[in-house]
Design a protein that fits this description.
Helix content is about 25%, strand content about 30%. It is α/β, with parallel strands linked by helices. Strand 11 and strand 12 form a beta hairpin.
Length: about 210
């Protein structure tokens, strides 16, 4: 079983996840936290980052992509429909522009091989055009970004959001993932598919 570390950025409450395998390789999900905080977590766990993966392109999730990608000399992956967020402040909802060139996920789902990780991804638009959820190495854990939260869902009132797409994405995810799957959201505490199916205020969408 991979090790899942959670680092929460204090201003926006954004969750950065560091996922470490038995070979002590690490993928960094949504690096909103600083390079210094990430370094501390990586060093204390004797891990070596091999890639950044992004659930979507809003600024609180990609704020420190440049610093981390450049320091570790690693690629940053994002769905093609959110790749413009690297250079378009309007798309990322913040006043930032990155110099890192994104590697792009393509299609609605697939498997990305990164070092010894197998990263399964599902394109789940609505919160943003390129919102994507991940499952690592077929483990019963879904990294949901801002698609699904503990007791809520991501906003769908941003200029590039779409309520109908968000609803369809949630229906697809709840049809795909089993009740026992743990959900690691972009903000807030972890949850499970079963808990959200029963108690989420938006459960009628599922």
């Amino acid at each position: 079983m991979n090790q899942y570390l959670t680092l929460t950025e204090p201003t926006m409450g954004e969750n950065t996840y560091v996922i470490i395998n038995d070979q002590r390789q690490a993928v960094i999900v949504d690096p909103g936290v600083t390079l210094q905080r990430l370094q501390q977590a990586v060093q204390s766990n004797a891990a070596t980052p091999v890639a950044i993966i992004l659930t979507h392109g809003h600024y609180d999730h990609l704020a420190n992509v440049d610093a981390i990608a450049q320091h570790y000399q690693i690629p940053a992956y994002i769905h093609a429909k959110d790749a413009n967020c690297f250079v378009n402040p309007r798309a990322n909802l913040g006043n930032i522009t990155l110099t890192t060139i994104p590697e792009r996920f393509k299609g609605s789902e697939g498997i990305l091989e990164i070092a010894d990780f197998a990263v399964a991804f599902w394109h789940s638009p609505g919160h943003s055009p390129g919102s994507t959820v991940f499952q690592i190495d077929e483990e019963p854990v879904m990294v949901s970004g801002d698609v699904l939260f503990n007791g809520s869902i991501g906003r769908f009132d941003f200029p590039t959001s779409n309520e109908e797409q968000h609803r369809a994405s949630l229906q697809r995810l709840f049809a795909t993932f089993a009740d026992q799957v743990k959900v690691l959201p972009g903000h807030g505490m972890p949850t499970t598919i079963a808990q959200e199916r029963q108690h989420n205020p938006f459960k009628d969408w599922f």
